[in-house]
Amino acid sequence: MQPWRFVVVRDRDVKRRIREAAEREERTFYEQRAPAEWLDALAPLGTDWRKEFLEAAPCLIVVFRIDYAITQGPGGVERRIKHYYAAESVGIACGFLLAALHVAGLATLTHTPSPMGFLSAILKRPKNEKPYLLIPVGFPAPNAVVPAITKKTLEDIRQSV
Q1: At residue 26, what are phi and psi to the nearest 5 degrees?
Q2: pLDDT at 76
Q3: Which pTM value belongs to this model?
Q4: How many CB atoms lie within 10 A of CB 145?
Q5: Distance CA 1, CA 28 (A)
Q6: Which one, of 43, 35, 7, 11, lies nearest residue 19 by Cα?
Q7: CATH architecture of 4-157
Q8: Burial status of residue 49 (CB atoms within 10 A of its CB: 0-12, 13-18, 19 or more)
Q9: pLDDT of 100-132, one tens digit each?
Q10: Dihedral sign, Cα of residue 112, residue 100, residue 139, residue 39
Q11: Would you state the pLDDT for residue 148?
Q12: CB contact set of 53 (below 8 Å; sequence gap of 6+)
């Protein structure tokens, strides 16, 4: 059913509006809603409510999950067709997109401000599309620094039966 929509944003004004709205949500999250454990988990990444990258990136890809299709039934009555496994399908599609962007030499960042309803409003999306993921995309800056994040070992994630 391909229950996703990828909206590409290049317009500077729209990126600015997305940044401003995301920073409002993120500031509230960091200052009021985030539990201490969550903030502790984020600390090694050096993130905070400021999201300059949303304007600096040449392109934003906003991914929307489509939970149901809308069609016109008899007499012009709106009819909804449920998309099963929408979240799982969109997650897989995003994984392929991120891998393809990486292979193309582009830098990406997955960003999920919460709540994300402002993306629907700014991008004028229909009611059956829900924001899923915000992906800034561009070529890495020459002085870009990626946090050193340790990964679990194969033994930690593999289980034999």
Answers
A1: -65, -40
A2: 85
A3: 0.88
A4: 8
A5: 36
A6: 11
A7: 3-Layer(aba) Sandwich (3.40)
A8: middle
A9: 999 999 999 999 988 999 999 999 999 999 999
A10: positive
A11: 76
A12: 109, 136
